[in-house]
Design brief:
With about 200 residues, the chain is α/β, with parallel strands linked by helices. It is built from eight helices and six strands; from the N terminus they run αααββαβαβαβαβα. Strands 4-3-5-6 form a four-stranded parallel sheet. A two-stranded antiparallel ribbon has the order 1-2. β1 and β2 form a beta hairpin. α1 crosses α2.
């Protein structure tokens, strides 16, 4: 049995997505053998994370907080050259970053911060869907033609989320498309190469 502190840290690391007990133990023992100053610097950055980083008040991508911890617009939302009428909806910010690497999309983003599980009826309430609905309604009030691109992953949860969004937004009579199946079923945008994502974007339907 590990010492209590090591065991507690292992349990903490297992809360990270995709990290099991063995990987968590490797993290802890790596930190234990690492230079003390590097570990302290890492701890300080983790401590500052919630103090200095917030989320874009429009799309919910991460941003550095302004003075007085004011919510800011991210770089994409603040860029007047981007097309505000086209909104690509992604599950998480890592997907957004991977899409940006293709240099083929010039619209806006909306980060849901998760997906809907078919077994969790409370799932939609945990996501930024109400805020997306408000964004779209505001654009329609400005007499703009809106396209919403559903860039959820081709997984069971991603498909469930896309279907929910289609049903929610179809009464608004906006154009709703989804990334083409250049992405294989079960894959995730976060781990797809830029060329695959670019083809999925071009072949959206």
């Amino acid at each position: 049995m590990y010492p209590k502190l090591i065991q507690e840290l292992i349990e903490d690391f297992t809360h990270f997505p995709g990290i099991g007990p063995r990987q968590a133990a490797r993290f802890v023992f790596y930190l234990l053998k690492e230079d003390k100053m590097r570990v302290q610097n890492l701890a300080e950055k983790i401590k500052r994370l919630h103090e200095e980083i917030g989320f874009c008040k429009q799309c919910f991508a991460s941003v550095t907080l302004g003075e007085g911890k004011l919510q800011m617009l991210c770089r994409s939302c603040a860029d007047a050259k981007r097309d505000s009428r086209v909104i690509m909806v992604v599950e998480k910010e890592a997907d957004l970053q991977n899409i940006e690497k293709t240099h083929s999309f010039n619209g806006m983003y909306h980060v849901l911060n998760g997906v809907i599980s078919p077994l969790d009826s409370s799932g939609p309430a945990k996501l930024h869907i109400k805020e997306l609905l408000m964004r779209v309604k505001n654009l329609l009030a400005e007499k703009k033609q809106v396209e919403m691109i559903l860039a959820t992953n081709p997984t069971t949860e991603g498909d469930t989320t896309a279907l929910y969004l289609e049903r929610t937004f179809s009464p608004l009579k906006i154009k709703i498309t989804r990334l083409g199946r250049g992405l294989t079923t079960g894959s995730e945008l976060e781990y797809s190469d830029p060329e695959t994502i670019k083809n999925a974007f071009i072949n959206r339907r």
